[in-house]
Write a structure and sequence with these properties.
The chain has 2 domains: 2-52; 68-156, GMP Synthetase, Chain A, domain 3 (2-Layer Sandwich), CATH 3.30.300. It is 54% helix and 17% strand. The protein has helices spanning 2-21, 26-52, 68-92, 134-145, and strands spanning 95-96, 99-107, 110-119, 124-125, 153-156. The chain is an alpha+beta fold. The strands form 2 sheets. The protein has a 3-stranded mixed beta sheet with strand order 2-3-5, with helices on one face. The chain has a two-stranded antiparallel ribbon with strand order 1-4. α1 (2-21) runs antiparallel to α2 (26-52).
């Protein structure tokens, strides 16, 4: 900014010297025209620099680090939301008081389900659902919401 102000002061001083030193006549018009082009160039120089600057808003991945606390908060929220959806669906189907624990990890900052533990200790089944294989039914509901296999859906009583 200081350089810009000095350039404007310099061009004003040059204008004063040109006005004093150049004799009046036909040559004076041409010299003053050239001088006015320089004045416009000095005044517009910050605009030209701004428009030609290529990386004004360039963001580099290396400049930013992922906040681990924030990512853990987000992953816990995803796990809690998934747990709530599964428990609500099972509750709507007549399987009440099921406690689900979701085990997950974050590989390369990606949420990855490892296993789901289903505690059936307090399970209450509606009378019309008594004949259904509870393990198979609960496993099918969990698979609706996840891409897990039967091997990683663990049941406890």
């Amino acid at each position: 900014m200081a350089g810009y102000i000095l350039s404007i002061l310099g061009i004003i001083l040059a204008g004063i010297f040109i006005d004093i030193l150049v004799p009046t006549g036909s040559v004076s018009k041409y010299i003053k025209s050239i001088y006015s082009i320089f004045v416009v160039a000095v005044i517009l120089s910050p605009v030209v620099k701004f428009l030609t600057k290529k990386d004004v808003y360039t963001l580099k991945y290396e400049d930013y680090q992922i906040n681990e606390k924030l990512m853990n908060f987000i992953y816990n929220g995803r796990a809690d939301e998934l747990k709530a959806k599964i428990e609500k669906r099972l509750d709507d189907e007549g399987f009440k008081n099921i406690d689900i624990k979701i085990n997950y990890s974050s590989n390369n900052n990606e949420f990855q389900l490892n296993s789901i533990e289903v505690n059936l200790k307090n399970l209450v089944i509606q009378a019309d659902k008594q004949h259904i294989n509870k393990y198979e039914f609960i496993s099918d509901v969990i698979k609706e919401f996840t891409n897990l296999t039967d091997e990683v859906i663990l049941f406890y009583e």
